[in-house]
Amino acid sequence: MPADRSRLPALGPEPTFTFPDLGKHTLPNGFLLLLPVGAAADPVDRPGLAAVTGDLLDEGCGDRSAIDVHDVLGRMGAQFDTEVGADATILNMTTLSRAKERGLELLGDMVMRPRFEQKEFDRVRELRLNRLVQLRDMPPSVADRAFAQLIYQGHPYGHLAIGTEGSLRALTLKEVVGFHRRAYSPSRLTLIAVGDASHEALGEMARRVFGDWLPGATESGGEPFDAALAPPPRVPTERLALVHRAGAAQSELRIGHVATSRNTPDYHALLVLNMVLGGQFVSRINLKLREERGYTYGARTSFDFRRGPGPFALQVSVQTEVTVEAVAEALGELRAIRGDRPVLPHELALARAALTRGYPRSFETAEQITRAVAQLALYELPDDYFSQFVARVATVDAEAVTRAAEKYLDPSRILTVIVGDRERLSPSLPRLELGAASEVSMA
Amino acid sequence: MQIPYTKRTLGNGLEVVVHEDHAVPIVAVNVWYHVGSKNERPGRTGFAHLFEHLMFEGSQHHDRGYFHPLQEAGASLNGSTNADRTNYWEVVPTNAIELALWMESDRMGYLLPALTDAKFNNQREVVLNERRQNYENRPYGFAAMAIVGALYPAEHPYHWLTIGAADDLRAAAIEDVRAFFQTYYHPRNASLALAGDIDTDRALHLAETYFDEIAGGHEPPPVACVETGAIEADTKLLLEDRVELPRLYLAWHTPALFETDDAELDLLADLLANGKTSRLYRALVYDQRLATEVAASQNSRELSSFFQVVATAAPGRTLAEVECVISKELERMAAAGPAVDEVERSLAQAEAYFVYRLQTVGGFGGKSDQLNAYNVFVDDPGYFDRDLGRYRAVNAGSLRAAAATYLARDRRVTLSVVPRGRTALAIPGSMPVAVS
């Protein structure tokens, strides 16, 4: 019997799903080590220190040189990476089940006994300096850097984790050793383990590897800095900033301002708001700038929820010729959702459904699960956060979304950063009525 | 190790492959059409990919955006085009499987009535922006174009990139779209894979319900049969670009996907440049600090593949210095082969990779995508263990032989990408190449 194409088929009854009860399918093992110390803990004159320290952990640890460490990882067929963000350093490892003990031992060596050898430090520093050089030509990176710098003046979130050239050149290995000693202590680290073993067995492994680790004496440098405690950043005076990129085929845009932190009581309302505004393909920003106008390959918005107040940003790369039109449309959308065109019932339904019905997809792999649990540790969320998620989102109504938009999107504070061709743009920028464009040099 | 499946061919020629995995209450739906940029011709490049965009713009019985009902049901979805094939997928909660099949079948069978000039013109603009974002406004963005342009003769299906030429895109007309759809987008040229929380019988029944009514269509015309064209010398090319550091690209012709030595070359890429223990990383980055990064890959494709090594010179270093080290290492590999521990490590990683591939049902590279790849390229969804077998059969001798046969210095394309005005950093004797 052929399908009925007069209407879309109805959805069946919603399947039940409880986290983290996921059945025994994950053959690989996942480990994640979380240290709630990231770029925000960089001393003011040493942006990049946390990242270099994190990067050096696998460059020789315990009995093994850098090459040996990676030889072992290779032989185990393990996947490993380190990332340093604004608030945290995360070491992530996926191994086959039979290699999990070796994997955890290696992770233990990395955090407890990194060798911090001079030649590895020199090489890592040089690679980062070279990377900084290359990032100068990548519009998204230039835009991110300018945006953070301008909206977070004088604040620990005002720099990217990789740091700056001046800081990296001046940095010494001794400072890295000191940072590691201050920041990496047993009381501060969380180990998350997922995989084909009982809770008892995983706990026993962790005790074997980490049980004898004594907290080091903290240096006079004191506790690493928590951005949640920093005074709020100064609001930039300019509304428009331009980083010149001669002959650019597209303008890279960042439009937004400092928003709020992960522990905001309006978290679920903001997730829904963001979905409506620019959090998925079917969203106001993307449909307008891509599907309706053809200005771009894709546009999105995001609230970056951090320990301190993270940024709200609209990100898009548009054809140079339509830069001013695109900015005007974007600003229009950010204003409209606060009042003139508040969220409509079908938009609300779509946003909530996308968040709740799509939820189980986020828990397929070992790494997805460890990352999800890491959130609980980093943001001090309740253990039932995941099982409450769907219910909390389901209660967000149109009023809550509109209130969140009014409270957290502030047209008077929005900064528009454009990385693009000054020569072709400057005649038309005044049409935006955002005042003079402050020219930012990203040397 | 395998991905257990059931395969059935519907009356109209559509092949359906089903794999059950009830770990998470989601189902992956994945459709492959056996058409890619290799089916285009010069003057009309970029077409398969532009067409892929149009598949998201509505079909006869749902003449609205494709994303909306699926995102509302909690799906993630996407598609992609490459030289050999176009794939479309969604991962839906279990209760939305019929919606996903309804949507996929509607655009397979009934796309054209909903196609309008406005949609066509809009998506053309979107694609031109994609081109700007990923190629024109990006450092080294034109290198890939230069490489394939030099590796393959002008009439060869792999001579152009999937994104196509901007002029060709602007010259495309809506009639071309209709013809393209009729030629390539029908059940007989497609494969449907379902993987996840679904019962096999139900999956097959639903596939039949939604897809069997669509006319099967005819065998599409074969791809233009053009000789790959041997590279008979070290072909040195030059591109100036807005970049800070010079970068070297080396490329060689190699056997096609799944052919003899394809697995060897894949592992050679790992051995040579994947991670800190690799030959080139150690020589170039770790020991001599000549390069900031190095990568290697066996780009396996249906008609023929190419092997590529890419290295970015450190500040103050020339590409000649970098090239010298790479060539020496390749010659050493061709003469003496890899060491025992190198082979062990590569095999361990390859084996582990096959295990990690089993973790997801959907998306790019998930189990449903893999089943379709095997089905379309070797007519056997169960190829997984034989694919792994190819890697297990690799040894030091076969790796040495593959390096010797395929990675010779005088049979490659050598592209220098240098900062504007700094041509002295390029390999001496490089000829400027024009790409846009």
Please outline the helices and strands:
The complex is a heterodimer of chains A (443) and B (436).
Chain A: E1 28-35, H1 49-56, H2 66-76, E2 79-84, E3 89-96, H3 100-112, H4 118-135, H5 139-151, H6 165-170, H7 173-183, E4 190-194, H8 199-210, E5 240-244, E6 250-258, H9 267-279, H10 284-292, E7 296-303, E8 311-319, H11 323-336, H12 345-357, H13 366-379, H14 385-394, H15 398-408, E9 415-420, H16 422-425, E10 438-439
Parallel strand pairs in A: 5-9, 5-10
Antiparallel strand pairs in A: 1-3, 1-4, 2-3, 6-8, 6-9, 7-8
Chain B: E1 6-9, E2 15-20, E3 26-33, H1 47-54, H2 67-72, E4 76-81, E5 86-93, H3 97-109, H4 117-136, H5 143-151, H6 166-171, H7 174-184, E6 190-196, H8 200-211, E7 235-241, E8 247-254, H9 262-273, H10 279-287, E9 291-299, E10 305-313, H11 319-336, H12 340-356, H13 367-378, H14 384-392, H15 396-406, E11 413-419, E12 431-432
Parallel strand pairs in B: 2-6, 7-11, 7-12
Antiparallel strand pairs in B: 1-2, 3-5, 3-6, 4-5, 8-10, 8-11, 9-10
Class per helix and strand makeup of chain B? alpha+beta
Average pLDDT metric of chain A: 93
Beginning-to-end CA distance, first to last residue of chain A: 67 Å
Strand content of chain B: 15-25%
* Helix and strand pattern of chain A: EHHEEHHHHHEHEEHHEEHHHHHEHE
* Low-pLDDT windows of residues of chain B: none
Considering residues with a beta carbon less than 8 A from a beta carbon on another chain, report the largest interface and each chain's count: A-B, 78 and 85 residues
- How many whole angstroms does the radius of gyration of chain B measure? 23 Å
Number of helices of chain B: 15
Multimeric status of the protein: heterodimer
Shape of chain B: globular
| Distance between the first and last residues' Cα of chain B | 45 Å
Helical fraction of chain A: 40-55%
Question: Going across the major beta sheet of chain B, what is the strand order?
Answer: 1-2-6-3-5-4
